[in-house]
Amino acid sequence: MRVVVTGATGNLGTALLRRLRTEDDVEVVGVVRRPPREAGGVRWVAADLATPAAVPVLERAVEGADAVVHLAWLLQPSHRPELLEAANVEGTRRVAAAALAAGAHLVHASSVGAYAPRAVPVPDGTPTGGGADGPGGAAAGDPRDAVGEDWPTTGVPTSLYSRQKVAAERLLDDLVRERPDARVARLRPGLVLQAAAGSEIGRYFLGGLVPLGLVRRVALPAFPLPAEAVFQVVHADDVADAVVRVLRTGATGPFNLVTGPVLGPLDVAQALRVQRVATVPVGAVRALASATWRARLQPTDVGWVDLLTQVPLLSSALARDELGWAPRVGAATALVELLDAMSDGRGAATPPLAARRGLGRRRSPGADAT
Predict the structure, then answer these.
(1) Which Gene Ontology MF annotations are present (predicted)?
(2) pTM
(3) According to the model, what pLDDT value does residue 138 have?
(4) Short-list 104, 92, 100, CA closest to 49
(5) How many structural domains compose the chain?
(6) Which of 35, 177, 216, 311 is packed most tightly, with the most Cβ within 10 A?
């Protein structure tokens, strides 16, 4: 099986390559803006998906491919929305067109961020992990009020990330209507975490505003979070497992991918070794995020606050039933793994996931990530 992977050096991409290396009959072509120094058994192709020049490169890369896994997605620079639009929406259009023209199975990494906001606030009775995985962990059932893949994919309007994920979904809808024979699968994971992405996630969401080396090493007296910050995550290795299952079965359509338990402010505080949770109004967090982003003190725009507090809780029942998928890593474990890696400055030997250097921050224009 010949598999082309875009964004193969990013968060999901590195996890997928690790998994595909265990599949003896798979040949991998990685399409990225900046190929790594070591080939690692992958045939690397350099292409900037934000530009029309990527089209002939993609057409050559996907020739003879059985599947194309589209993981490339720019998260930064958040102050240049036109660049993110070109890379994410137009880039998806170029990849999808090339894949379908070649007759390949297209697996697109969408997101929980493509979904419309929660119908109602997350109820107080929604169980969270309390800082640890256990009976409510990776193998648990769905939380109360979890939604399936039929929940509207109209996004959170105030989030640029969400709007672009929605735009990518709509263009795939159009392509599938035009080509009824097209084979397209869409994965909609929660927040994707792994140790290898520790430095990247720190750079792209916190920048230099937070001393990452102190994360989980210094016990803060309190940590402010809105009560509405109730969310789901999934480990990158478990998403990679789902991708392989989609490739092997030829599955099409959307699949939600999350692990348990649901995480809330208490879980985040315990993972950070904070003494107590200080719940604050969402409006205050939005105002702080907006002011510091506009002042370029940190790279996270206010839309990410809205995503964290508005996206629905997901059910992964379809992936369990149709793919036989079951996450192995619980939410609390994945969160602590990420935070420890952020504190240690760990990363991976790829340009987007490069480890933090010393006490500073490694600057980079963007990331091949989802």
Answers:
(1) aldehyde dehydrogenase (NAD+) activity
(2) 0.91
(3) 65
(4) 92
(5) 1
(6) 311
